[in-house]
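Case study 2.
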Amino acid sequence: MTIFERILREIETLKPISASIPRLAAAVSDPNANLATIVRTIEYDPVLTANALRLANSAYYAPASGISTVREAVERLGAGRILQFAAGQFAKQQMSRKNSGYELAENELWRHSVASATAVDQMARVSAVRVPAAAFSAALLHDVGKLVLGRIIEEDLRERIFSTIERKHLSYVEAELEVLGVDHAQVGGSIARRWSFPHSLADAIRWHHSPEYATSSDLAANAVHVGNAVAKILGIGMGTEQMNAVARATAARNLGLNSRKLESLCAAVAEALPSILSLYEEV
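Prediction:
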């Protein structure tokens, strides 16, 4: 069986995401979707409804009075945040496990994903540029391709990737592409499309290492690229990839982030991350 055939087989066996999450993502990404449409999308799914209400009433958001309806939850939190935490609940189940292919310990990939999403969430506080709502969930799921390739990359392939990096002076993801024929970002984008996520979200996952190639017109891929870099700067989710990735300065500039603002962003993520991780446990 070829590497490509093995990858296809692993994608087939990957646990599917609840269909209601891509539907909510589509509604959040649609500029014409109104509050009633978003509320109806959530209300039709009991799990989404329960999570939205638990999140709105959580200690983290400390509501002055209890939230009892989905409409109140959406008005309080915003649909993008409800989508982010719905995607996060799924991602936590899948990404908390040890990933031997990338030498990531238990919970390391999950913590990296949350740190990346937290960075995207915090960008609005340091930049005037509006970050698309889909970018939050894309950041949480940006490394979903590692769930598949982590089962494929064994010691021999890992050695070939490292050898290619050394001989050709490539980044990890470039060497991954050369050795395997695909990279984890490409596989992740394919998984997102298979799960029927909107184009902008799948595009941000596909191009999170090279946002300049994203076909979507918004800034989601740039935001995920910077969020991924911030998580790595904080030393979260290093694995075999370590810091061997190309950081696109243009992505930061497109988001209105200079070096001072990036430092502030890193500090904000480091401060907020423990509470965000606890929130997923609470909800």
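The chain has a mean pLDDT of 91.
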